Amino acid sequence: MEKLPTQKVICSFFIAFFLLSVSTTSQEVEDESEFNYDRNSLKGPYNWGKIRPEWRMCSNGTMQSPIDMLNERVKVVSHLGILKRDYHPSNATLVNRGHDISLKWGGGAGYIEINGTQYELKQCHWHSPSEHSINGRRYDLEFHMVHESKDQRVAVIGIIFKIGRSDPFLSEMKEHIEAVADTREEERVVGMVDPNHIRIGNRNSKYYRYIGSLTIPPCTQDVVWTILSKVRTVSREQLDLLRDAVHDDSETNARPLQPVNQRPVKLYRPQDHED
User: Catalytic pick from 79, 99, 125, 127?
Assistant: First the structure.
């Protein structure tokens, strides 16, 4: 067998290492046993950046999430356009990641389109209380729909909830969430799940848009955030189910608010003639 020149071997190694690094740091960490949400803990959110070198952005990043969408800093615009999405029913699995419940699609669940780039829907999960706040107010729950483009850029849709009527999508997932309540990192096959059942809103829905980061390690930046301005409702029973299912001995799984650092935060509001 012909041996590759040493330079080619070294070059191949670094290319492989680079590709591996990109693929691992652009996504949320799956094993959540290494960190927690206790602000006084060495594993807590103020120390995430010290736990592993590849998580240093959690401490050093200047474009971190979540943030407060304060009226005084939000610029109202209409040029962002409606949130283009094309979702389809697809096979999904549910996993208890230790600090949250994550629903993952195997592929073919559709996409959103932002500035001409398509971001494929990969997974969704819940945080309580809400991670983002509006005018200083944190609500009871926040739902994240995580998307990824072909070049591994990330875009997240955030939906905020307050206590009230039951959320239909959570009602649909109730049996499966109960089934993974006593598991850890064990995937449960859910079957076909239609993302269109998630209440995102109509074509005229208003939303906030800014550039931030993942809200759990490795806190990768340049994430395109779209936070729907309409606050939806979730029942107390549903909220308790999500928190009790993870058994993490914490009352919350929401990261503290991060400095805005002069980043522009826009609120899309359609013009009257847009339908």
Answer: 99
